Amino acid sequence: MELNYKILGSTIAAFCLSIVIIVCSFYIGSGINDKAFNLIIIIAGYTIGWFTGILASPYGLSEENRFSEYKKAISAFVGGYILSKIDNTLVNVLSWENLKNIVSAFRLFSFVASFLISLIITFVYRRYAR
Question: Which long-range contacts (CB under 8 A, 24 or more apart) does 111-115 make?
């Protein structure tokens, strides 16, 4: 495989940002339980981002056909059930009172950041590293 500077740049950026997020997770929170929960949130973000990145970038027509069925099932589940249940949770998570708490704000932003890092790096490798 030829060295692709876009892939290399994306990998270095993702690695550096991931290190910062993971190191910060050990400094945010007061006890071992807080730090462990920070890591769980980050792992969940990476996992969901990885899964979404795979669905967003199928390798070929056969995967695209298979993934379209998965996307339909997932969107029906998310649209029908999860969105009806998540409204109150989102209001609480995104409330100003919750975001003033450094631990809660860190968890929200680290989840979003890890999700996006994983999504982008998965997409880049599946699209450009063949």
Answer: 111/41, 111/42, 111/44, 111/45, 112/45, 113/17, 113/21, 113/45, 114/18, 114/21, 114/41, 114/42, 114/43, 114/45, 114/46, 114/49, 115/45, 115/46, 115/48, 115/49, 115/52
- Domain span including residue 43: 5-128
Tens-place pLDDT, residues 47-72: 999 998 988 888 877 777 767 777 77
- Angle between helix axes 32-56 and 5-25 (nearest 10 degrees) is 160
Indicate the number of domains in the chain. Answer: 1
Burial class (CB in 10 A: 0-12, 13-18, 19+), 101: exposed
What tokens appear for 27 in the block?
Answer: 């400094």
Residues 97, 25 contacting (CB under 8 angstroms): no
